[in-house]
């Protein structure tokens, strides 16, 4: 009889876990509006608490442990709101560098930690991390596919003071004040330095693309001291915005990849560039999956020369592309991100490269070169997180 009771308890535990996972973190719509939200426990949703004081009933998603409401919580937050007070589910940050600590902060809005208290005595509570998005980013930019609303909230467009082709480069949001881009994007002959960054954009041709973009003026351009045009080395720069950036479901920083070795053979690139070497701009954010290669492969394509690559391909560079051709990052994608995802969570992206240069866009046996972000972590941290 006791064994049968334990079997019943186990069934209840599993049913409870399934119920929680099916509700907390799921996307929702606030009742009577077109505002997107995320299902959260009521105590974790400030907007629901504020509305309750006004007599506004929350949009219900379900229940937690049968006695706590799970409500539809509006997706608007700033960085100070992302720090959880639940010490039981946080790992120690003592041994993490500041980039990794910030990554943990940025990840919290896209991960729910669900604590399940088993009904069987003597068993410790179980903590389950639940991703809050359903994107499959390893998809089929050349040979690519359109991005979805909110899929790449760190993607930035770098704008210049010109009416002719103003969005000439890409970038990556890495904090609430800084966008990382390529050094060669920080000066143009006809339009000067970057003047604005656009975040949350999906389609330049319409305001009805399912996102909410924001433009932020650039107050300072920081180009790496080691960048010396026309050489390709140290092709990295920071753009500081004139005001603090407000995060949302469409605007959120990427994590910086801090390790030398990359435990992946594929990466994802995105940008609003050109479909082929001489083609028209796509005007839509595109994504493409690329292979990662040993730098020796790119050394064959880009041998040392006196002008642009006097030392050839070096360790601060990253080699990526598709040797069969048809997939690549093109002219308008300069400065844009090359990322990998966290195993088991397609919501969080780690920036491994900055689009630097290539030879022929999408051609066979011509991978492109990216600035290797992990080689510049100290340089970035000293300017962004101090």
From TrEMBL:
> Where found?
Secreted
> Primary place of residence?
secreted
Highest taxon, organism lineage: Eukaryota
**Keywords associated with the record:** Disulfide bond, Hydrolase, Protease, Secreted, Serine protease, Signal
All copies of domain Peptidase S1, residue ranges: 141-385
Q: InterPro entries, per this entry?
A: Peptidase_S1_PA, Peptidase_S1_PA_chymotrypsin, Peptidase_S1A, Trypsin_dom, TRYPSIN_HIS, TRYPSIN_SER
Q: Where is the signal peptide?
A: 1-22
Q: Would you kindly state one Gene Ontology biological process term found in this protein's UniProt entry?
A: proteolysis
For this protein, the record's PROSITE patterns field holds: TRYPSIN_DOM, TRYPSIN_HIS, TRYPSIN_SER
Q: Which GO terms describe its cellular component?
A: extracellular region
Q: Does the keyword NAD apply?
A: no
One MF term from GO for this chain? serine-type endopeptidase activity
Q: Record's PANTHER family?
A: ACROSIN-RELATED (PTHR24252), HYALIN (PTHR24252:SF7)
* The name this protein goes by in its record: Peptidase S1 domain-containing protein
Supply the source organism for this entry.
Answer: Psylliodes chrysocephalus
């Amino acid at each position: 009889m006791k064994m049968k009771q334990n079997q019943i308890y186990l069934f209840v535990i599993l049913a409870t876990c399934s119920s929680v996972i099916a509700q907390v973190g799921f996307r929702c719509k606030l009742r009577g509006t077109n505002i997107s939200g995320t299902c959260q426990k009521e105590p974790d949703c400030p907007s629901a608490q504020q509305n309750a004081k006004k007599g506004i009933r929350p949009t219900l998603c379900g229940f937690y442990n049968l006695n706590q409401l799970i409500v539809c919580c509006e997706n608007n937050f700033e960085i100070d709101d992302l720090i959880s007070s639940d010490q039981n589910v946080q790992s120690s940050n003592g041994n993490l560098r500041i980039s990794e600590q910030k990554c943990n902060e940025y990840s919290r809005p896209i991960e729910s930690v669900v604590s399940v208290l088993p009904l069987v005595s003597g068993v410790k509570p179980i903590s389950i991390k639940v991703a809050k998005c359903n994107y499959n980013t390893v998809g089929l930019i050349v040979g690519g596919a359109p991005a979805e609303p909110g899929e790449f909230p760190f993607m930035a467009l770098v704008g210049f003071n010109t009416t002719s082709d103003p969005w000439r480069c890409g970038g990556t949001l890495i904090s609430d004040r800084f966008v990382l881009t390529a050094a060669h994007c920080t000066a143009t002959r006809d339009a000067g330095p970057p003047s604005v960054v656009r975040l949350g954009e999906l389609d330049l041709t319409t305001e009805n693309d399912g996102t909410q973009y924001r433009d932020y003026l650039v107050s300072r351009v920081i180009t790496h001291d080691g960048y010396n045009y026309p050489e390709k080395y140290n092709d990295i720069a920071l753009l500081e915005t004139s005001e603090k950036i407000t995060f949302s479901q469409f605007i959120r920083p990427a994590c910086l990849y801090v390790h030398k070795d990359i435990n992946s053979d594929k990466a994802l690139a995105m940008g609003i560039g050109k479909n082929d070497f001489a083609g028209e701009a796509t005007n839509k954010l595109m994504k493409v999956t690329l292979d990662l290669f040993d730098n020796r492969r790119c050394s064959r394509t880009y041998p040392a020369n006196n002008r642009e690559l006097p030392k050839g391909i070096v360790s601060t560079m990253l080699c990526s592309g598709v040797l069969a051709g048809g997939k690549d990052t093109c002219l308008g994608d300069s400065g844009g991100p090359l990322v990998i995802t966290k195993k088991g969570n397609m919501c969080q992206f780690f920036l491994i490269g900055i689009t630097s240069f290539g030879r022929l866009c999408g051609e066979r046996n011509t991978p492109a070169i990216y600035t290797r972000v992990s080689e510049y972590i100290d340089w970035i941290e000293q300017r962004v997180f101090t």
